[in-house]
Known about the structure:
Low-confidence stretches: none
Mean pLDDT: 90
Number of strands: 4
Number of helices: 3
Helix content: 40-55%
Distance between the termini: 41 Å
Largest sheet: 2 strands, antiparallel
Amino acid sequence: MIALKLTQVGNSVGVILPKEALIKLGVEKGDTVYLTDGAGGEMRLSAYSAEVAEEIAMGEEFMAQYRDTFRALAK
Length: 75
């Protein structure tokens, strides 16, 4: 585990990723990464993938199309 410190970046807060983490993620300055929810309240950081982005968009479209059905099933 690597401890990271939050730092002020303009009006936002950022985190500096060490070189080892950038290499392991396969990213560099200017690339896009995803921060997603994981099991048990964890957060997961992963590299951008056009394939995954397309799958997420398709899933969101499907969920929007059948929103009422999902609500009915959730009762």
